[in-house]
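Just curious. Invent one:
>
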Amino acid sequence: MEFIKPGTHFDFVGKMKIAVGLSAVLIIASILSVVLHGGLNFGIDFAGGTVIQIKFSKAAPADGIRKAFAGINVSDAIIQEIGENEVIVRTNQSMTKELQDKVEGAMTSQFGAGQFEIRRVEFVGPKVGKDLTNKAILAIIFAWIGMLIYIAWRFEFRYGLGAIIALIHDTIIVIGVLSLLNKEFTLVIVAALLTVIGYSINDTIVVFDRIRENRKKDLKKSLGDLINSSINETLSRTILTAFTVILVLLSLFFLGGPVIHDFAFALLIGIVIGTYSSIFIASPIVLAFENVHISKGKRKK
């Protein structure tokens, strides 16, 4: 199935400066969002503390829940609604059996017996949280390095450089969107980022493969024209792949429930940004790298 008719020629390289400018704005906005929020909104996986998931039989006001926790000296409770009559309560305090009994007693006193159900209690110590943070950062960095080595070996170093810059671009923007919306940054989000990296690099390699094939066919053609024709030739595949993935993610986002909500949202943003970067960022960076190389060669002469 061809979504884009053969012979269509969009000047993607000609829009390179506009794309780079747009990406620069998005990256700066992402970094500013993280800085102004005082860092990412780390979930219990990274920050440490206790998470209590409570399901009520009817709507329960947040003030009432907060009052119940304040009554047992848990004054730092953060309450987040995750579904119909369901909340997650976060606190930095360690969840002991004694504290859990106090929570149940406070909830019973405030809302009545049988009016709620404590569905989940999780505790992560600060040392474990710090260790998970370091491992999450290393996982993303090693993914970048691995991709760079593979693409530099399969193609050329400049192709690897273009692909990695595009991946860093995708990661920063996805994190920025999550920060802007004050979404919780958890291990699930790290999994989503790694998935986005995999999807984006696959899209980019498809374009790079076509560039290499077309270059063998016409050695006289300029790299800019080769990139334009290659992106146009793979555009139908790129759009259809992204469209089908987005349909699945929209189903997960709206029907998957609160547990998978943030994961699906991060992937939705990542797939859109990854598709954009494979067209407007990765290949044009390869061209820019060659132009700089040619310019240096002329200066030496």
The domain at 49-124 is CATH 3.30.70.3400 (Alpha-Beta Plaits).
